Amino acid sequence: MSDAYIFFKEGKPGYAPILMLHGTGGSEEDLVNIADFLSPNSPKLGIRGRLIENGRTRYFNHTEDGGFDLDSLDSETDWLLETIKETFAEHHLDPTQAIVVGYSNGANIAAYSWLNGKDTPFRTAILFHPMLLTDATITRSLDDIKVWDSYGANDQIVSPQSFFALNSSLKVAGAQVTSFQHQSAHKITDEELTSAKKWINQINLNI
Description:
Elements: E1 6-9, E2 18-21, H1 32-38, E3 44-47, E4 51-53, E5 56-58, H2 70-90, E6 99-103, H3 105-115, E7 124-128, E8 146-152, H4 160-172, E9 176-182, H5 190-202
Parallel strand pairs: 2-3, 2-6, 6-7, 7-8, 8-9
Antiparallel strand pairs: 1-3, 4-5
């Protein structure tokens, strides 16, 4: 789409593509090194959030009181999903085979799309430090969804209540969820990456 900033890196034929969704203030290239570690042979595709809030890129906005702008969240999720479908088609990739690698803001919008009745093509995700953004309005079973997600016990942004509420909502809808907890803050650690890579290998994805 004309208003999207896209990063694309070719991979080997037959390998599951990685869809990279950055955290607040990030770009379409932020997670390339992480994606390369997790799945070196996969094609990599990153999409930058098109909003700017307080000088930082985002996938959706906050309200003035610091809450989530639900209108922005809903419309920007639709924009992102349409951009994913168009961009994957342009590169002759199947979005249903994609592994989402999302961090914080990017992880949140991926989970929101599953839990709120969106036409979401991807079915597998690695979500670093996600949270539940709003009550789920699930309209279909998520029993074809596989998720690995992580939480830091000293995370200053994601509360344990929000993280575990997200996992509960996903599981109630039928998703298979594997969680990893560590003692660090709101950052991606080496132990998280090792756990996420082990999980990919265990679920037998072609990486």
